Amino acid sequence: MGLVIVPARAALRFALAAAYAIAGYLHIASPAAFLSIMPRFIPFPGTVVLLTGIAELLGALALVQPVSAKLRRAGAIGLAIYAICVFPANINHFILDMNRPNGGLGLAYHIPRMFAQPVIIWLTLWCVDLAGSPFRRHRSHAGDR
Question: Are 97 and 36 spatial neighbours (Cβ–Cβ below 8 Å)?
Answer without folding.
Answer: no
